[in-house]
Amino acid sequence: MKTIKLAPGERLVTNQLNRKGVLPQNIVDAARDIVANVRANGDAAVRDYCRRFDGVELQSFRLPQEQIDTALEGLDPAFVAALEKAARQIREFHQREVEQSWFTTRPDGTMLGVKVTPLAAAGIYVPGGRAQYPSTVLMNAIPAKVAGVKRVVMVTPPQKDINETSGGKKFKTSLFELRGRSSEPRNEKSSEYVVLLGRAYKFASAEDVDASESYVIGNILRRILEGYSTFNYGIGMSRLSRDPDLQERLGDQRPFLEDAMYRLALNDASHMKKRVKAFNPTNAFERYSDEEKKRCAQCVMVILDKLDPVHLRKHLGSCGISRREIEDYLKEWSGRFAPAAE
Q1: What is the pTM of this model?
Q2: Percentages helix, strand, coil for the chain, rounded to the nearest 5?
């Protein structure tokens, strides 16, 4: 916050209110150059950026219809069911928000009213890279369709195919996850959510804190809670502790668990060091000590256990963690977040 002290009789002037934005100037300039280039050169400029930034040569910007039609093939039926449930709940929620046109006629014949007309088209953006959330599609596209938008266009950054097809033959590549300066094979059957859940549990239960994981743990925990709340209840993370049914499940530990969710809600994707230095968010998760981060990770495990113990044990079990170990740690952690006896 900028503080301006005025001398007796001094008046505030516009120049005193000027301040630099939160984004470094070089980033702003680069973004402006990109926009100007696309405006001037159109699709050619976009294709050039796809080659430079994404490593992809695009012939067409539109995804082939056959690829859209077969998108659900090969997906885990449980995952598809979760998407359908989330879509249904999101649709039901936003249907209650739809505004209706209304008209009335006054005694003198004057007609008054409001006519609500949906947009003819809407564009939605779905991030690529590491932040690939199906919930982004659902929470943008469904409200638009509920509102009556006829045409919804979704754009997302292109990516190199992991399984490429050529001449009827498939060339399968291995997936790896980066860990510090080394790479480890990734279990292709595990969803990103399960992988993150396993990393959070490992961080919560480790005796010695991994410095590289400490830097990203706030983002990991937030993504876990966001993914869980979206796919299971069709609501945002911040509403988990406000839902009456979920409040009852949290029991007398609710204040402790709400505090953890509040901290995570203030986390500003602190896994990017340059971004942290540039934004310098006052409430960034990075300002907490390793011990506080570890305690928060333990708290998230307790939250998930309170809301759905079967869910937590199933996914941690798929990470190769024994049920006995999970039970022992959850009992220990749960005791740390219990109210003091009077």
Answers
A1: 0.44
A2: 55, 10, 35
